[in-house]
Recover the amino acids of this structure.
């Protein structure tokens, strides 16, 4: 069974640009979570999508947004990129808010 | 909100020795406590979890203990091997949503051959 898949693996953007990251959950999972992991730091909860709706968001500015598609895949958009947005962005999925499973992450570098 | 503290931040052991990582949490409503292993350049992988109705859980060389009264839980790795070297994260969450876990800051475990 395929795990959580994320794309792209690496992304380099210039300050002020927009970045879009994508995530495909484990088949059958309806919830998708996004986390930010800055270099050397822990995981910070960003967003939670369930059944196509945004259910909760962490303490991040509105320029971090996303959506969940009917097939439960999701994308994370980061607008007006700042240097401190450089981080590993992790997607995770779960079934019925139970145990979560992480993808390998997307490295975003803002220069 | 929930606050999770994890200690130590770094841990170095000799191959074959045991390693113990401890976490404390603040929210008495938390009742799901997973542990994740993150290897360099990869996403976190769930290695073991425990729910509040259980005091201890073991899976081969890995065990987790939970003391709900004291609000702390620990990861124990016995007979450590070099491939156990990684960053380990603890987390705490309400049973209603494991995805809304609050994570500790991580422990970098190095197992020296």
């Amino acid at each position: 069974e395929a795990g959580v898949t994320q794309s792209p693996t690496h992304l380099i953007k210039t300050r002020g640009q927009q970045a879009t990251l994508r995530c495909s959950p484990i088949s059958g999972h309806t919830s998708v979570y996004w986390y930010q992991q800055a270099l050397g730091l822990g995981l910070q909860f960003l967003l939670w999508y369930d059944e196509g709706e945004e259910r909760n968001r962490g303490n991040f500015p509105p320029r971090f947004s996303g959506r969940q598609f009917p097939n439960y895949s999701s994308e994370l958009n980061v607008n007006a990129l700042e240097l401190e947005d450089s981080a590993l962005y992790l997607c995770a999925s779960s079934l019925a808010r139970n145990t979560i499973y992480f993808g390998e992450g997307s490295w975003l570098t803002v220069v | 909100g929930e606050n999770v503290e994890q200690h130590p931040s770094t841990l170095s052991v000799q191959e074959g020795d045991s390693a113990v990582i401890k976490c404390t949490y603040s929210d008495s409503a938390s009742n799901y406590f997973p542990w994740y292993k993150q290897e360099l350049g990869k996403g976190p992988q769930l290695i073991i979890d425990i729910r509040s109705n259980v005091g201890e859980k073991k899976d081969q060389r890995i065990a987790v203990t939970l003391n709900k009264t004291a609000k702390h839980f620990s990861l124990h790795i016995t007979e450590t091997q070099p491939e156990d070297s990684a960053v380990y994260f603890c987390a705490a969450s309400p049973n209603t949503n494991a995805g809304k876990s609050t994570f500790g800051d991580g422990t970098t475990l190095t197992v020296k051959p």
